[in-house]
Amino acid sequence: MKKLELNLEKRKEKGKNASRRMRKKEVIPAVIYGRGDNESLKVNYSDFDKLLENPDGVNVLLDLKTEDWKKEAIIKKIQRDPVYDNVIHIDFLEIDMDKPLKISVPVELIGLAEGVKEGGILAQQLDELLIESLPKNLPPRIEVDVSELDIGDSIVVGDIEVSDDVEILEEEDQLVANIVLPTEEEEEEEEEELVLEEGEELPEVEGEELPEEGEEGEEVPEEESEEEK
């Protein structure tokens, strides 16, 4: 993972009202935990926004700095406003660079699958993988090449190759992605519903009874030809 620096300030104000006042000043409330006591912090919105602009997004190692200390951490959680989608709170997890870390990283499918060229649909079934590694060896994402997949083919966790420094903690038979056929048209589905199951009887219709087997029905008069008319 890439390592970036981020400057913060210690925060004494707490509570919803204090958080609202900070956000009006374009300051984001934050907290750090993981080693020792939790500590309330705040970060300038523009500084954090620049951090998010890097190609790896939030999947980076951080050197957090205040006026009193420097700590290594990762972003554990970002809370966003449900309406405006702006960041309203950040959780940082302090880490030990010499100890393995368990973390979920995104799965990125790469390549154009053969099955897609033939009209199939690529369905991603797993968006994240839980992995374990020393922080310095953590990948920002796991890339999975799907270019060889035909219609009906699939990739499971056990098919994914990672470096020896990284261990995948998911079940090996868990489905990651597959190529499926497009859903049938509604008309075809309706036609299938009309097909009677084997042994199913036709519903009785009120009115005249049909002649039973062996009985003669009424003769239908033949239509006159044009010459007879």
From TrEMBL:
GO terms for biological process: translation. GO terms for molecular function: 5S rRNA binding; structural constituent of ribosome. Residues 101-182 form the Large ribosomal subunit protein bL25 beta domain. Residues 183-229 have a biased composition (Acidic residues). The keyword Ribosomal protein applies. Pfam families: Ribosomal_L25p, Ribosomal_TL5_C. The keyword Cytoplasm does not apply. One of its GO terms (cellular component) is cytosolic large ribosomal subunit. Residues 1-16 have a biased composition (Basic and acidic residues). Residues 6-92 form the Large ribosomal subunit protein bL25 L25 domain. Residues 1-22, 182-229 are annotated as: Disordered. CDD domains: Ribosomal_L25_TL5_CTC. Keywords: Ribonucleoprotein, Ribosomal protein, RNA-binding, rRNA-binding. Part of the 50S ribosomal subunit; part of the 5S rRNA/L5/L18/L25 subcomplex. Contacts the 5S rRNA. Binds to the 5S rRNA independently of L5 and L18. Belongs to the bacterial ribosomal protein bL25 family. CTC subfamily. NCBIfam families: bL25_bact_ctc. This is one of the proteins that binds to the 5S RNA in the ribosome where it forms part of the central protuberance. This is Large ribosomal subunit protein bL25. It comes from Candidatus Mcinerneyibacterium aminivorans. The gene is rplY.
